[in-house]
Amino acid sequence: MSVNTGPTLAERTGDFSGVRPIFDPFSVTPTAGTASGYTRVPFAGNVMPASRFDAVTSRLIQAYPQPDTSGLANNQITNPVLGQGWDQGDIRTDYNLNGNTTVFGRFSQQDTLTLLPSTFGLRTIPGLSVPVGLGNSTTYAGTNNLVARHAVIAGTHTFSSSFIVDARFGYGRFNRHALKDGADPGANLGDKLGVNNANQEPFSYGLPIFSPSSYTGIGGPAALPTIRLENTFNPNITFTKVRGKHSIRFGTNVVRRQIINFQTNQGDGLFSLDPTFTSDPNNTGKTGDSMASFLLGAPAGISQDFMLVWPGIRTMEIARSSRTIGK
């Protein structure tokens, strides 16, 4: 269950008379003798005229589910449902070549598809042809497809009653694609919503993040897309020699990793909104509202990530060991 804070029915129409006084950010007048050096004109009756609504956010605000209570905070409840399916299996075979040599092989696979839900589920936004998942950026809502493979082959050979060798080779494959909810290739939901240049990044086809302080967000999730490919090669060999009362073990273990990682936190853009631009600059603590700033399209901050390269990481880990065990 998710307890959310959304705009009231009155706020959706620009009426903030039951909230706090709101001021027109475009009415700044230099005023001597004030703490800030300027003043703003309040909206008459704390009601913002529809002619001042932003073309994008005035549609997004209607996508909020209607409140379940009349309160200004924690006034709406949703029940997001996580979906997950997986296929997992293992195959192993053992074979004795002769009295001195044994081998075995194993293959394991796990395919996991996780559907992380958005805060409000699928919502309809005027101007978009299909419903899209909307909510707080911290939901990481989207499709998380993980494909994992692991294989190993090993053999043990007894040269004599006092000398044994064990050799193994392992391979692991990790392939994860986590994409934003509804952000199919070429969907460009941000651009279609009217946010110019929202979808510039590779694999960034979703909605920007809209985050009004003190309210539940109504945009896309953060930290997506995330794409990670990893190959791990692991050969190792161990010799065991028995001498009298002692057992001596020595060998080498090698781990070779190949990693490609791509992730953006705000690839489709982030709009942070707070009461600053709709407050009385000389009485900021008791005036202004972030939802009023949202409806006006007056963000306090805008940011967007750009991934210039896909990092390709290659590492080699080599360990040599020897050990003597006394009897």
Descriptive overview:
This protein is mostly beta strands and 327 residues long. The protein has one domain. The chain is built from four helices and 16 strands. It has helices spanning 9-12, 57-60, 189-193, 290-296; strands at residues 2-4, 29-30, 38-39, 76-78, 83-96, 101-116, 122-123, 132-133, 142-160, 163-180, 209-212, 226-243, 246-263, 270-273, 301-303, 312-326. Strands 5-6-9-10-12-13-16 form a seven-stranded antiparallel sheet, with no helix packed on it. Strands 11-14-15 form a three-stranded mixed sheet. It has a two-stranded antiparallel sheet with strand order 1-4. β12 and β13 form a beta hairpin. The radius of gyration is 30 Å and the shape is elongated. The relative contact order is 0.16.
Task: Note the main attributes of this structure.
single chain, 327 residues, mainly beta, 7-stranded antiparallel beta sheet, 3-stranded mixed beta sheet, 4 helices, 16 strands, 6% helix, 44% strand, elongated
Describe this structure in a few short sentences.
It contains 4 helices and 16 strands. With 327 residues, it is mostly beta strands.
